Amino acid sequence: MPKEVLTDVLVVGKGAREAAIGLKIKESPLVRKIYFAPGNAGTEKLGENIPIGAEEINRLAAFAADNEIGLTIVGPEEPLAKGIRDQFDEGGLPLFGVTQKASLLEASKAWAAGFEERHNIPHPRTQIFRKVDEALNFVESADPEKYVIKADGLCAGKGVVLPKSVDEARDTVTDMMVKKTDVYGEAGRIIVVQDRLVGRELSVIGITDGKVIRYLAPAVDHKALYTGGPNTGGMGVYAPDPLTGINLMRIIKRDIMQCAVDGMRVEGYSYEGVLFAGLMITKDGRPQVLEFNVRFGDPETEAQLMLMKNDLMPVLKSSRDRTLSRRLIVQRRGAAVGVYLVAKGYPGKPATGEIVSGLEKDFGPDVEIFHGGTKTVNGQTVTDGGRVVCITAFGTSVPDASKKVYSIIERGDIYFEGARYMPNIGGGK
User: Fold this and answer.
1) What b/e sequence results for 378-402 when a residue is b if at least 16 CB atoms lie within 10 Å of its CB, and e otherwise?
2) Cα 215 versus chain centre, distance
3) What strands lie across the sheet with 231-239, from one edge to the other?
4) Is the pLDDT of residue 166 over 60?
5) Do 360 and 375 meet the contact criterion of CB atoms below 8 Å apart?
6) What is the pLDDT of residues 306-340, one digit of tens each?
7) Strand, coil or helix: 293
8) Nearest to 82 by CA among 55, 46, 63
9) Who's near 238: CB < 8 A, 6+ residues apart?
């Protein structure tokens, strides 16, 4: 293998996921400088923020070319769905992330359901509605607690509703397909209705070169704002999942992950990047796909990269070069837990501009404060989004790591007005 050379890296995105990626690659002897587009108040300490939005693909490509960026890493799904990989490829600019065609696996739940059906990937029974009256007829005649309503397109993790009544189901269909509210926009023009599965959720994330997959630690994300509350982009996570043993992972790798990668290749889709399966492990122990994503998870990444022992950069480059068989991902012994402090009003319209205190504190080598929705104003860090900071800790076990996180939260070491959080993630409270 040729000798690796120092390179500058561009990380696209502004959340805690991108901060975690930045921190991990900063450890690499292959990385000279990191740019974040647009970044946040925390990423300023890891590299240089540039005032370019994640979806401004033309400007990002121009910056990468002008600054001889050796690798661009895309965090969020929107630029992938808009074809950032394709445009960078046309310009000869190295980028880690899937093509626009491959992003359909996340960008359209209807397309993904058809793909799963074609390749015998286990998933819940699915119905697709393109007409409002047909969708309303269904929800008015079905038991609302037996199904899930999903917007077909991208909704930043907020496009899934588990209705508790016929009225809520009817309102959801109207909000998605007719009103096209701020949450859904055009993403709800088509809706997907699936059988509601019972069990425990699991996030399995791998990096692939289109054939080989290398896996991060299996993680458990917590979507609800509070028990029984609305879904969010993710309130916290722990990894690895102590309930997911070798046999279950073998089934997931064979019947879901490898099947998906092979299926994409068979259908003519170039797939180099991240494959993320959001799964339900049913009561009989069988994994079913709730959704596929084509990028690193948030908050999963914050915990998973804390557990990754080896250098991330060669893995990402090998994904692009289709030489991933030469690389491994080595996990640290122990566990990691991340818990988000979110702003008042999240997941709707979060309050912004609140001063975040305590960020200058040193909590030791086992704790990281990953900035999400923050920015710097007049030398102070203030809230600038729903998920403000993800407090993440490493420990000997999930409960041990969880206790470290909640001790910080409950002492008020990190604080802003109106802060909320999900209690008891990982059993540490």
Assistant:
1) eeebbbbbbbbbbbbbbbebbbbbb
2) 15
3) 220-224, 231-239, 335-342, 387-395, 367-371
4) yes
5) no
6) 999 999 999 999 999 999 999 999 999 999 999 99
7) strand
8) 55
9) 219, 220, 303, 335, 336, 337, 338, 398, 401, 402, 425, 426
CATH code matching the domain that covers 335-411, chosen among 3.40.30.10, 3.65.10.10, 3.40.1650.10, 3.90.600.10: 3.90.600.10
Residue 399 has pLDDT above 90, yes or no: yes
Partnered with residue 53 across adjacent β-strands are: none
Superfamily of domain 199-326: ATP-grasp fold, B domain (3.30.470.20)
Q: Distance between CA 356 and CA 401 in Å, rounded?
A: 23
Q: How many CB atoms lie within 10 A of CB 107?
A: 22
The dihedral region occupied by 199, where left means phi > 0, alpha psi between -120 and 50, and beta the remainder, is left
**Position 157 confidence tier, pLDDT thresholds 50, 70, 90:** low
Amino acid present at 190: I
pTM above 0.70, yes or no: yes
Angle between helices 166-174 and 132-141 (to 10 degrees): 170
Q: What is the CA radius of gyration of the chain?
A: 21
Tens digits of per-residue pLDDT, 39-66? 999 999 999 999 999 999 999 999 999 9
SS3 content of the chain, % helix, strand, coil (to 5): 30, 30, 40
User: What fold does the segment set 8-96 form as a domain?
Assistant: Rossmann fold (3.40.50)
Place of tokens 């837990």: 337
> What are 220-249's pLDDT values in tens digits?
999 888 777 787 889 999 999 999 999 999
> Hey, what amino acid is at 347?
P
